[in-house]
Amino acid sequence: MSETIYVSDSTTSTETILVIDDDPDILALLEMSLTSDGFNVITANEGPLGLQNAKAEQPDLILLDVMMPQMDGLEVIKRLKEDTDTRAIPVLWLTAKSQTEDKLKGLEFGGDDYITKPFDLREVTARINAVLGRTRPVKYINPLINAMGDSFSEEGVAELGSHLQAAAEIQLKLLPEKPPTYEGYDFATYFRSSTSVSGDFYDFIPLNDKRLGIVLGDVKGHGIPAALLMVMIQTASRLLSNEEDSPATVLKRINTLLFHNTDIEQFTTMVYGILELETGKFTYSNGGHCPPIHFIQKTDNSDKTLQTNSEVHLLETGGMLIGVFDIATFSYETCTISPGDVLILYTDGVTETEGQKPNDFFGEERLIDYLSNKLKLSADSICNDLQKTLFEHSGTTQLKDDRAVVVIKRNEV
Fold it and tell me: What's CA 83's distance to the chain center, in Å?
C-alpha cells in the first residue's frame, strides 16, 4: 500500500486515539501522523487486544480496521457497544470502497463514521476531529448522568444547579463578612473563585480582645470536592485555635485529622498565625503554603532626606503539606509587624496567574516588585489594585484557579 504522508499543523489536543489494525505499516503510519497532529496514540494489532485496550485506557476515539483475522472490525464494534464501559467511545472504521455491506453494518452496530481505503491522512484527521466535535459534549456529560442516575432530567439538572448555587452562598457565608476592625490596623481581603464553589479560604478568629488568629489556605483542586474539604478545615481551625496556643500544634492536629479522614490525594496548604494586637508580634506556622510577604518599612535619614523604602521577609517556617503524612511535624516563627509594615498572605492562584503569552506567570518576584510600590495605599486599595493588575496581566476575567488574599497593614503612629 503506497500513501503520501501529509503532516498537518500540530494542535494542543490531549485526546487519545486507539488504532486497531493488523497491518503494522498502517499502524506505524497512523501513529506517526496522529501524534504529529497532537493526539496521544495507542495501537493494537488485533481485535481482542483492541477490546482490552479500549476497556483499560478509555480512549476518546477508536480508529478501527474492518478486515482483520481472528476477530474482524464489525465484531469488535459489536462487543464495544455491548460493554457498558466502552459503549460511549466513538468508533471510526476503515473499509474498502467495495465493502458497502460493511459500511452499513458498522452503522447498524453503532459505529460513528467510516473512511474508505486508500485514505488520505488529512481526511483521517478531519474525520476524527468531526466525530470528536460531536461526541465531546456527551463525554463530559456522562459523569453527570451516572452520578444523578434516575434523577437525570431537565427538572433534576435544574435542581442540581440550584443546589450548587446554594452551596456557593453557604460557603461565602462561612468566610468573614468583612475584615476585622482594630485600632492601629488596616485589614482587607480579596477573594474570587474559579468555579461556583472554592477550595481557597481565609478566616479571622478572635482569641480574646488582644489576640487575633489569622488563617489562609488552599485545598488541592477545585469545585465541590475542594469546597467540602475547605469547610472541614475551616471548622477545625476555628475549634483548634481556641484550644491550642501554638500555631504549629494547630497545623499538626489539622494534619492528623485530614490524614485519617480523607484520601491521600486530598491535602491542603495553609498558614495559621496569631497576631498580638498591642505589640504587633505575629507568631505563625506555614504548612507548605506560598510564603506570606512581610514588607518592613525602613527610613533612611542618613542624608537627612528621610527616604522610605522596605525590606522584604518571606514567612516560610512551618512544615510539609497538610494531610499527606501522619508523621509530619511543624515549627513556628515570630516576626513583628511594626507601624508602617505590611503583611500579605495569598494563595497560588495569584502567582500562577498566566499572562497573555504562554508560561508567563505573574510569579512571586513580580508580586513583590508590584506591592513594593503600593505600600502607602490603604489595605483595601492594595487589594483592588492587585485585582486590576492580575486582570491586565491575564487579559481575561476567567480564572483558572481560585484566589484569596489577606492584607494586614499596621498604621503609622
Answer: 32
